[in-house]
Design brief:
The chain is α+β, with helices and mostly antiparallel strands and about 400 residues long. The protein has four domains: about 160 residues, Molybdenum Cofactor Biosythetic Enzyme, Chain A; about 55 residues, Molybdopterin biosynthesis moea protein, domain 2 (Alpha-Beta Complex), CATH 3.90.105.10; about 90 residues, Molybdopterin biosynthesis moeA protein, domain 3; about 70 residues, MoeA, C-terminal, domain IV (Beta-clip), CATH 2.40.340.10. Helices cover about 20% and strands about 30% of the residues.
């Protein structure tokens, strides 16, 4: 005999309250790992990066031309050039072997070390090589002009990056400039994805009567990867309290657990029961559309999100709740959506009292509705983004400017 009962959601909480509760349960990871610099972009540093050398490690030419003593060029012009004797040519990767003395110069490539005695570079365009080693200088230069000074970029002992910094391509470049090949970063949160229901089947398998393919495992996994986590999909679990309970125990080796399905009000929706039995329920039901039947709590300190089974509701809630939760655990900054402000192509009618997420396409500078139904994944896949209609607003008039958050 089944012991589950229908459990209508009689009380929902506002979206802001739900976000506060999920944020409060999100504990940033302390687990770290050492990785190759090649794989570091997007990761979060777990230790300061302190320079153990100057960058660049020597004065170097910043232009192709001639390394000179600046005083030797004063007063030079096209009509009255200064004539210097070229004593050497230095390419990148080579080291000068001769010091420059008054009346002399060294031909130098961009990035090559400056010879002793020289303190400026005249661009090759402002010179003319004559009579073998004689060089005519047509313009004066001042000391240190066109010279990349030693330590101009990074000084030995400087704190280049700090623990908690997210590694962008430029920050990866700064680490590479110090000759560092491996770094210590915070581990990515592992997020268990548990799809429930006897009606869903893994893509690639044949469908039986009354069955559909599991969409949510893949949309959730994509969101998790995109926002700093590692998706850990588990086998589909039947609507059986004992089997679901055992599956949850296996999932708890991970940092976050996300149910797909099992958060609604039907007698075969058991997420609520498992959470109640094993942990603490923080809310069950949010005043949003789509995505009202969402349950959230913790088991042994791990955040647990029970998502609606309908693909649009599930993915909408992933953007709304899972992304900020996951990014906080991963020590990543809050996600900032790209937005565009455009007029509404038609009137949008909302459900009063529920914060609505309405998917739209942006066509010819207008926001056109894309939402079909909570069960239709094309409500999202054929949309450019979504607009939000606050709970206290029941409609948006045609022509009214709306802010579209782009996917």
């Amino acid at each position: 005999m089944r012991d589950e009962q229908m459990r209508p959601i009689r009380h929902t909480i506002p979206l802001d309250e739900a976000l506060t509760l999920t944020e409060g349960a999100a504990v940033p990871l302390n687990r770290t790992e050492r990785i190759d610099l090649d794989d570091s972009v997007g990761r979060v540093l777990a230790a300061d990066v302190v320079a153990d050398r100057d960058v660049p490690p020597f004065d170097r030419g910043a232009m192709d031309g001639y390394a000179v003593i600046a005083d030797n060029t004063f007063g030079a012009s096209r009509m009255n050039p200064r004539l210097l004797q070229c004593i050497e040519t230095v390419h990148t990767g080579n080291v000068p072997s001769k010091a420059v003395e008054p009346g002399q110069c060294t031909q130098i490539a961009t990035g090559a070390p400056m010879p002793d005695g020289a303190n400026a570079v005249v661009m090759v365009e402002e010179t003319d090589r004559r009579n073998g080693d004689e060089v005519a200088i047509f313009t004066p230069v001042y000391p240190h002009q066109h010279v990349g000074r030693q330590a101009a970029d990074i000084t030995n002992g400087a704190e280049v990056l700090h623990a908690g910094d997210r590694l962008t391509p430029s920050r990866v470049g700064a680490i590479a400039a110090l000759g560092i090949a491996e770094i210590v970063v915070y581990a990515r949160p592992r997020v268990a994805i548990l799809s429930t229901g006897g009606e869903i089947v893994t893509p690639g398998q044949p469908l039986g009567p009354g069955q559909i393919y599991d969409i949510n495992r893949f949309t959730l996994g994509s969101v998790i990867q995109e926002h700093g986590g590692v998706p850990v999909p588990f086998p589909i679990t039947a609507d059986n309290l004992d089997e679901l309970s055992a599956a949850v125990d296996a999932c708890l080796e991970n940092d976050i657990l996300v149910f797909s399905g099992g958060s609604s009000v039907g007698e075969r929706d058991l997420t609520f029961d498992v959470l109640q039995r094993k942990g603490e329920i923080l809310f069950h039901g949010i005043a949003v559309k789509p995505g009202k039947p969402t349950v959230f709590g913790t088991i042994s300190g791990a955040p647990v999100l029970g998502m609606p089974g309908y693909p649009t509701s599930c993915l909408s809630n992933a953007y709304m709740l899972l992304v900020p939760l996951l990014r906080r655990v991963a020590r990543l900054p809050s996600h900032q959506f790209l937005t565009v402000s455009v007029p509404a192509a038609q009137r949008f009618v909302s459900t009063t009292g529920r914060h609505q997420f309405y998917t739209v396409r942006v066509v010819d500078g207008l926001a056109i509705p894309a939402f079909k139904a909570s069960g239709d994944i094309t409500s999202m896949s054929q949309a450019d983004g979504y607009i939000e209609i606050p709970a206290q607003t029941d409609l948006v008039e045609k022509g009214e400017t709306v802010e579209v958050k782009l996917f």
